[in-house]
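ok trying again, last paste got cut off:
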Amino acid sequence: MPYDEGGFREKAQKGYYAVMQKVARPLVGAGVSPNHITIAGMLLSLAAGIFFAAGMIFWGGMLLWASGLMDPIDGTVARLSGKVSRFGALFDSTLDRFSEFFIFFGFLVYFKSGRMLIVVMLALMGSIMVSYIKARAESLGQKEFRGLMQRPERIILLIAGTVLNAPINHYLLGGCQDCTLKGVLVILAVLTNLTALQRLLSSRKELA
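nice, full thing came through this time. structure:
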């Protein structure tokens, strides 16, 4: 039987949304506002940034994972409760940017000297520019956006790089200090800026 990639992706998406709805329905029943969930996600990112700054990379990664879970839940709660609004979308995007700043500021403090400081700054710049180009292009009428390193991919990569930093370094890299985390940040520094460039070139075609 031939492999049906489109069918598999559709089933995976349906399963994912079904899980999100099961998580969101009790919150809707309890009267939890989607904005409250958005704020909780931002506060978890702030806590993750503080842990990263203090060198507690694993626990910061776990907090980042918890924050990442808030991202799809707030939108699902908004849809199920009928509280979808343009301001809600703006509020969510604004707090997402604050969350990214908190996370990368934590890394800036942790890598406060040496080459990694420049790498973190480049990763932060690329992450913000990917989001900015999308927001600005949408305001000018562009509908479709692509790119390798969008926000979900950035968060997943950071979670993997922080939670798995210690075990991979210890068991696979011979005790190399933060090599996994550093590698992830280098990947982000390169791919986020390439994604920003990719979106800019795409927008040039659509908005010309």
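cool. The CA atoms of residues 3 and 9 lie 11 Å apart. Residues 179-207 form the longest helix (29 residues).
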